[in-house]
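help with this:

***
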Amino acid sequence: MVALRGSGPLKLGGTMNVSIAGAESNVAIGLARLGHSVRWVGAVGDDEAGELVLRTLRAEAVDVSGAWSDPGAPTGLILFEPRLPDVTRVHYYRAGSAGSRLTPDVLDRAFAASVPRILHLTGITPALSPTARAASAHALRLARDHGTLVCLDVNHRARLWTADQASAVLRDWVPYVDLLIASADELPLCLPPDSPPDSPTDTAAQARELLAAGVKEVTVKLGPDGATSYTRPNCSAGPASSTHPAEGASDAHDTGGGSLHQPGAAVRAVDTVGAGDAFVAGYLSALLDGEDVAGRLERAVTTGAFAVASSGDWEGAPTRAELSLLGAPPGTVVR
């Protein structure tokens, strides 16, 4: 999407900053900055806004050869309206957009060109339309057929669809998912359809229920409190299966029962928008590097902290060389 960020209430007018946004593109940029080969597959309008999206992704070293420019629909739009220092309202204009008209054949062409090691999806694309929902489901089937690891970030957007609508789709996706990433309040949306009405309400129990349903790893984002990953015994979403930190690797601690918690990184918050996507980028980066769960969590909270400390959805995403800057003492000048 094209993103417009205002400086105050939209009804009062004023100036706006123009950029791009989108959970999947945020993750793609974050991964590319960390040195990984990334392709973004999606649809934009055959318009100037679409050109901005593609140009920005190309400039960030993201492969957009699998993107589709739709001549019959506009590029989606999102407006950010800051109302309090820590409260921002978001307004979506995505109905009838090019992204909402994404079709399964776009995914067929992408997989035919090159099979990815990881397919990253969010719960946003299927909320846009039945067509986009079908394309997302098709991507899951292609990933299973090609042996591609599937990462799903729930990313529920209440302004795009209701919790019941989201649950009806996402719970059917669970059998295809290897790595599920969600905030604690999003986990119930993914619980299997045969879960009893009195299903456990605590996060750990819900994570175990999802692991029993076939997910290999459930990672729960806890905002400033860090994150916790839950894995089945002797099973992990990535190439390393250990759920215990390497000596000196991080201050993550094992909470028992196949879970590992990583505290959040202390940082002065500037803008929390995009922090979850930065977290995912860091997690997938470490996964691609063969890190164990502790290493993934450590990098994820680090990249998430970079995002929180900067304005914008993706602009503050760090490069690999910048990861160590988070631990620098206040007032440090790198010369």
Q: What stands out?
A: The two ends are 37 Å apart (CA to CA).
